[in-house]
Amino acid sequence: MAHSNRPQSFSCKLRDYYTLTKPEVNLLILMTTSAGYYLAAPERFHWLGLANTLIGTLLVASGTATLNQYMERAHDANMRRTSNRPLAAGRLSSAEALLFGLLLSLAGGIYLAWAVNWLASALAVSTLLAYLLVYTPLKRRTHLCTLLGAIPGAMPTLIGWAGSGRGLNREAWFLFAVLFLWQFPHFLAIALMYKEDYARAGFKMLPDFDREGRFTKAEILTFTIVLVITTMLPVAGRTGSSLYLLFAALAGIFFLYYGARLAASSSRIAAGRLVHASVIYLPLVLAAMMISKS
């Protein structure tokens, strides 16, 4: 693939740096971090504490996204959906991205330790290391990468929880479990949508034996059912409230509908609809938890 060597304007370069941070992913990360902070916070809510937690988390998440693209730049160039990313398309150099990613990550870890607490910082740095040193290289080796990648993917809930000053208790791990389980239908559906693209880049997001996708669709439906059941478990009384259970049940029926549609279909459109349903479902459940906070 030919790379452009034409000089860029300053605004275009800034836009490319911004793109490296994956802002659409960061929006989800900040949402789950905020939910963790709010659910753990005492009656007297500290808005400055939330703001500091979100700033530090955003910096680390942006650094992680940038370093991930640095590591996968050659593979991204072989995929249609990623070939126009700043590094894959050659609009930014590898050195620029590496420096930018390291500075963001370091700034985020230090900011959390200074403005929030050491536990939040340690969790954020652990998330970065697990994502870059475990999940990223495993994407080219085994389809089990989704299982291991779901661990750093669910960590923002714990970072937010720790940011409030509370230790990681049973409720914190319940919230972690919800986000952990949610990632399987979400990311496996994306893997089905872009199966050929991932294969072209050498990513093993799906098992080799599952050529028709039946195993993966069954896996998606199973994890969706387990997720919906998990959200309705009574943890510390909060999720035992009738209001929460009603919201969780309705959201679960909505999500299960699209999971079942995908399980009965070989359509790429059905996978895309499940992905869209997943990004509606998660905020609904988190909002229900926050509304029914005791």
Short précis:
With 294 residues, this protein is mainly α. The chain contains 12 helices and no strands.
Topology, element by element:
Blueprint: H1 10-20, H2 23-40, H3 47-71, H4 73-76, H5 94-116, H6 118-138, H7 145-163, H8 170-193, H9 195-201, H10 214-231, H11 242-263, H12 268-291
Helix content: over 70%
Structural class: mainly alpha
CA gyration radius, whole angstroms: 20 Å
Largest sheet: none
* Number of DSSP-assigned strands: 0
Beta-strand content bin: under 5%
Summarize the helix and strand pattern as letters.
HHHHHHHHHHHH
Averaged pLDDT: 92
Describe the global form.
Answer: globular
Number of helices: 12
The separation of the N and C termini measures 56 Å
The poorly predicted ranges are none
Description:
This protein is mainly alpha-helical and 294 residues long. The chain contains 12 helices and no strands. It has helices spanning 10-20, 23-40, 47-71, 73-76, 94-116, 118-138, 145-163, 170-193, 195-201, 214-231, 242-263, 268-291. Helix 2 (23-40) runs parallel beside helix 12, helix 8 (170-193) packs antiparallel against helix 12 and helix 11 (242-263) packs antiparallel against helix 12 (268-291). The longest helix has 25 residues, at 47-71. The relative contact order is 0.11. The model has no long low-confidence stretch (mean pLDDT 92).
